[in-house]
């Protein structure tokens, strides 16, 4: 299979960057064959044939419990759940918290672009205060939710929680390596990845990067949370 | 008085829940995901007590999707639930229908709507057969005795893994909580082994959402064709004294067993009654129903159920439109039905 | 031949134990049985019912409204089973109060008394053997508190 499959993501989307870096880390560690990537529905569903690893689509908010079942059935696999901020922290939060609490040996990759991208940019749990969205045209009245910090209260020793961004490739790859080691050691890991959504941010070119750096990064602190 | 009894060695006192657990073990199920809910809890706790691998999840949604994940990895996994839990389980059941996953679910019906009662009903028929945003391409079995509960649970695992359709063993609170005499030793059933839907040695990409209407249309049609191909083999009914029946009682599950006794009582008072009991609700034994109802002797069909017309809806839908027969209904949503009530209803 | 027995009392009075012993003894004697408790929201303190069917035929359905024998062990149970009375054989605790008091039977042993009574009735009908019931009872209760009291109660019930 060719490594290159044309992306179906919007131009300037952050997903292909995160996915390509994931592939590079897996390839470097010779883990492509063992890896399985579950997709949550949302923009992440477009990743279904993007990587040379096995993938499957699930339901919105349900990829975490699906990967719990997969990993428990195939213990030698490297099980990843790719999920958006809405899937992880809104509709799927109950399952995410309990998977973290039970220390399920899966790696959850949360793409945080502060909006529901696929449905046209509605407010997500991570939407910034005051940010104008399709469902809050006057601006979001709520403070955004901090996923990894929330999970910090429930995970067991050995778990790995972190936040980085698609324009921090070195840190992202380092965290991916750590998350994989965490899963291999039998523990839960989650990386929240700040990502671009020029379509719904209505930004172009350098503006998109600037938006992420100047609006998102000051609110969502990068680094290891645990 | 003298009675002739079979040897007690092969007879056992078991509850319906214990029968389900035994069937799951014998089917070589390897994992149960569950969430406690009356009256299905004892299937879960019974499985745990006997040492089955399990996970108690945060809700039935998680249990259902964990089963989907396990199945993709090639593991025989299952759950048991009821009522409100069954509603949540239909989320994953819908994925199983869309991706043709051999999802096995035991449903112990309780009263509804909403929290209803924790006791008994036949009100989860439509939910079992057509729950989710799909077309009802799943297998639904309705046992009428503990022995049949065992057989159909074994069959559900086999059919699900052989034909790759989700399967529901649709029973009820009475059946799961009842302790009765069963002899299982005589039942020899071969197991269909599981297989990896996401193979370890090959990269696969599984879709369950499509870019174009035509792609989904193609998938549904091919699933529909597969479903129709196996319908004749899987669809089953019990017919009792139908050859000369003028009044045909139609009932399923435990009510079917009661209807059969009612036929005996009605015959004693000179009423030519017969019984048709669908053992599978999906696929429905349509051909047999058409055959029986098409006979000239049959004047009236009486559909009897502990629901407000859920079975009746399916029966009327499945019966060939050219068959001219009148219908009557005995419906007691959420209530058990006794032999005497049926006799009185028919013989009025 | 089919016997439908409805056992009723307050939760904690040991209704399910009585049902269990009778069912097992009838089963050991070769009969088919079907047994179902009432289960609902009144898990503790409410009325406890057990529907027991003993038959030499296949038993299709575990529930019934007209029992052949009805046991009533409490006031609440008497009210609850009003619709189940139909000229059948009724064993009501209020008819035995004097006898139970005269013989200094512990309230906690009342279920054993009625187990004995029912055993006697069913043995006469050839349904079960009293030795079987007693053995089951001994196995279940002999290492627990008040076994001597329970044994005494059993003997009283079986004797007359």
Mean pLDDT of chain A: 96
The CATH superfamily of chain A is Thiamin diphosphate (ThDP)-binding fold, Pyr/PP domains
Q: What is the general shape of chain A?
A: globular
Architecture (CATH level 2) name of chain A: 3-Layer(aba) Sandwich
**pLDDT averaged residue by residue of chain C:** 93
Q: SSE order of chain A in H/E notation?
A: HEEHEHHEEEHEHEHHE
Query: Which residues of chain A form runs of ≥5 with pLDDT under 50?
Result: none
- Give the helix level of chain A as a range of percent: 25-40%
CATH topology label of chain A: Rossmann fold
Q: What's the tally of helices of chain C?
A: 6
Order of helices and strands of chain C: EHEEEHEHHHH
Quaternary state reads heterotrimer
Beta-strand percentage range of chain C:
15-25%
Spatial order of strands in the largest sheet of chain C: 2-3-1-4-5
The CATH first-level class of chain A comes to Alpha Beta
Distance between the termini of chain C: 26 Å
Give the number of DSSP strands of chain A.
9
Uncertain residue segments of chain C: none
Tell me what you see in this structure.
- Chain A has 226 residues and is an alpha/beta fold.
- Chain A is 34% helix and 18% strand.
- Chain A contains eight helices and nine strands.
- A seven-stranded mixed beta sheet of chain A has the order 2-1-3-4-8-7-9, sandwiched between helices.
- In chain A, α1 crosses α6.
- The radius of gyration of chain B is 20 Å and the shape is globular.
- Chain B is 41% helix and 19% strand.
- Chain B has two domains: 11-234, Rossmann fold; 237-346, 3-Layer(aba) Sandwich (Rossmann fold), CATH 3.40.50.
- In chain B, the strands form three sheets. In chain B, strands 3-2-4-5-7-6-13 form a seven-stranded mixed beta sheet, with helices on both faces.
- By secondary structure, chain C is an alpha/beta fold.
- Chain C has helices spanning 15-28, 75-80, 97-102, 110-124, 130-141, 147-159; strands spanning 2-10, 32-37, 47-55, 69-72, 89-92.
- The chains are: A alpha/beta (226), B alpha/beta (348), C alpha/beta (160).
- At the A-B interface, β2, α2 and α4 of A face α3, α4 and β9 of B.
């Amino acid at each position: 299979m060719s490594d290159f499959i044309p992306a179906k993501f919007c131009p300037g989307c952050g997903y292909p960057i995160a996915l390509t870096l994931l592939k590079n880390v897996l390839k470097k560690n010779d883990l492509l064959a063992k890896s399985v990537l579950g997709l949550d529905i949302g923009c992440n569903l477009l990743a279904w044939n993007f990587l040379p690893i096995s993938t499957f689509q699930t339901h919105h908010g349900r990829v975490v419990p699906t990967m719990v079942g997969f990993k428990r059935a195939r213990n030698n696999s490297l099980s990843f759940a790719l999920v958006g901020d809405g899937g992880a922290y809104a509709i799927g939060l109950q399952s995410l918290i309990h998977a973290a609490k039970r220390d399920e040996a899966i790696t959850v990759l949360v793409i945080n672009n502060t909006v529901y991208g696929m449905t046209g940019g509605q407010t997500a749990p991570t939407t910034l205060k005051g940010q104008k969205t399709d469902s809050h045209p006057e601006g979001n009245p709520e403070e955004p939710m901090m996923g990894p910090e929330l999970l910090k209260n429930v995970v067991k020793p050995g778990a790995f929680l972190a936040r980085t961004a698609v324009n921090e490739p070195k840190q992202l790859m380092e965290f991916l390596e750590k998350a994989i080691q965490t899963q291999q050691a039998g523990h839960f890991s989650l990386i929240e990845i700040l990502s671009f959504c020029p379509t719904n941010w209505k930004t172009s070119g350098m503006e998109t990067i600037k938006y992420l750096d100047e609006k998102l990064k000051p609110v969502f602190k990068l680094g290891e949370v645990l | 008085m003298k009675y002739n009894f079979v040897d007690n060695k092969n007879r056992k006192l078991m509850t319906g829940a214990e029968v389900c657990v035994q069937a799951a073990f014998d089917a070589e199920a390897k994992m149960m995901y569950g969430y406690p809910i009356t009256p299905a809890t004892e299937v879960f706790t019974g499985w745990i007590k006997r040492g089955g691998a399990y996970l108690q999840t945060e809700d039935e949604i998680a249990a259902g999707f964990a089963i989907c994940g396990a199945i993709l990895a090639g593991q025989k996994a299952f759950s048991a639930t009821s009522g409100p839990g069954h509603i949540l389980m239909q989320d994953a059941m819908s994925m199983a229908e869309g991706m043709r996953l051999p999802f096995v679910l035991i449903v112990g019906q309780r009263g509804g709507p909403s929290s209803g009662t924790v006791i008994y009903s036949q009100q989860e028929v439509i939910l079992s057969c057509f729950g989710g945003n799909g077309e009802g391409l799943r297998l639904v079995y309705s046992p009428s005795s503990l022995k049949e509960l065992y057989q159909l649970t074994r069959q559900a695992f086999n059919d699900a893994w052989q034909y790759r359709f989700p399967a529901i063993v649709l029973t009820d609170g009475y059946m799961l909580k009842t302790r009765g005499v069963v002899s299982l030793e005589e039942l020899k059933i071969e197991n269909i082994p599981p297989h990896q839907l996401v193979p370890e040695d090959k990269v696969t990409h599984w879709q369950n959402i499509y870019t174009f209407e035509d792609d989904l249309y193609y998938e549904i049609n091919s699933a529909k064709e597969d479903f129709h191909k196996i319908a004749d083999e899987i669809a089953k009914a019990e017919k009792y004294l139908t050859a000369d029946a003028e009044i045909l009682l139609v009932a399923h599950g435990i009510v079917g067993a009661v209807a059969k006794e009612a036929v005996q009582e009605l015959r004693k008072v000179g009423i030519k009654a017969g019984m048709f009991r669908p053992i599978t609700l999906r696929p429905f034994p349509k051909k047999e129903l058409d055959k029986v109802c098409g006979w000239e002797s049959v004047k009236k069909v009486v559909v009897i159920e502990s629901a407000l017309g859920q079975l009746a809806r399916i029966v009327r839908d499945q019966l060939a439109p050219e068959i001219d027969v009148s219908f009557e209904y005995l419906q007691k949503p959420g209530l058990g039905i006794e032999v005497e009530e049926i006799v009185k209803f028919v013989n009025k | 031949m089919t016997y439908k027995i409805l056992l009723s009392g307050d939760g904690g009075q040991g209704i399910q134990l009585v049902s269990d012993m009778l069912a097992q003894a009838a089963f050991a004697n070769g009969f088919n049985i079907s047994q179902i408790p009432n289960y609902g929201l009144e898990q503790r303190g409410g009325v406890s019912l057990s529907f027991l069917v003993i038959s030499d035929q296949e038993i299709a359905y575990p529930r019934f409204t007209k029992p052949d024998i009805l046991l009533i062990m409490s006031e609440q149970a008497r009210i609850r089973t009003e619709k189940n009375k139909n000229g059948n054989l009724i064993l009501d605790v209020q008819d035995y109060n004097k006898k139970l008091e005269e013989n200094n039977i512990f309230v906690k042993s009342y279920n054993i008394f009625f187990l004995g009574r029912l055993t006697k009735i069913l043995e006469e009908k050839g349904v079960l053997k009293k030795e079987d019931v007693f053995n089951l009872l001994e196995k279940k209760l002999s290492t627990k508190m008040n076994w001597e009291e329970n044994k005494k109660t059993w003997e009283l019930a079986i004797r007359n």
